[in-house]
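Q: How would the structure tokens look for this protein?
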Amino acid sequence: MSEQEARRHRARVWGAARRRLSYSPGEATVGRRLRELADWAEADDCADLPLDAYGDGPVEELEQRVADVLGLPAAVFFPTGTLAQQVALRCWSGRTGSPVVALHPLAHPEVHEGGALSTVSGLRTVHLTDEPRPPTAEEVRGHTEPFGTLMLELPLRDAGFVLPTWEELVDVVEAARERDAVVHVDGARLWECAPHFGRGLREIAGLADSVYVSFYKSLGGISGAALAGPVDVMEEARVWRHRYGGLLFQQFPAAVAALRGLAVELPRLPSYVAHARVVADGLRAGFEEAGVPWFRVHPETPQTHQFQVWLPYPHEALTAASLALTEETDAVLFRRWSPPSAGGPPGVAMTEVTVGEPGLAWTRDDVREAVGAFLARVRRPAESGPR
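A: Here is the predicted structure in token form.
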């Protein structure tokens, strides 16, 4: 079977499962998503709203809602987060007079955007630390090269969805101000950070000059993002959005899905974060009970509702076992596993675990028992065959 056929097969199997820790957007069907949005729109009395045209209607309503939730003066809708961050950092570069952006080497623009900051926008990046954690205030103050913008990814996804403490975050922002740098937050997953910081979203966002948020990662939207910040910066952002080809004629499906996410999923996120710790504890208990020679749940105590799991087996074997577990038990514990990035240790694999609404029904023992069933299906690739 081709890789595309295998991917579709996995999506069908995992999408039809009765029990799971979270829903994955790629496993839904067109009909199910459309019915979900239509049902919510009817219940929320917005089904009869006029459609948008070039950013008005439900798109404009979404922008106002985001600005209110984050406590920032204005917000602009973007079709993608990559575009939103391009525009944000370009706007700040013009205001600071510096094309240099300080960020982590594991930040999204460095790993997942094909060098767009330099190729498209003429910006240059510098790294404050190579450690798999957010930068410290000392590293911000001590960096030898001037920079105009400090970009902070909260949480730092590729390092394990890790966050600083509130005090560390405040100190880092203060250190940037001492250097006359502006602070932009890559908040694709900012929505679920409030429990860790013990602060509301308005107080968190209020530390920054601008904030980008995503609608599909944690809020269950279809696509899209928003950039929030000062009115004058957001007005310029609208100009650059158009120049970059991001002003679409109609975007009401994404906008309605995002409004639903803010209304339905956002209030639930603290319960997901709390239950992620129960799931992580159950995973550790299952691995220890099965005598796995080495494993890692990272962070040991999840800081959001997402975290990493590392095991000492080939990623192909673990993905095959994940699929087999679902086919035979109708439960999704893990999905796809990946090998370590370049330079990582051989013979290990990593997966990301997300705890959402369906995961709240899993007890620690449910997770522990599912780990045992999963490990019983882990085989060498030659034994398990293609999946």
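The radius of gyration is 21 Å.

The chain has a mean pLDDT of 94.

Upvote if useful.
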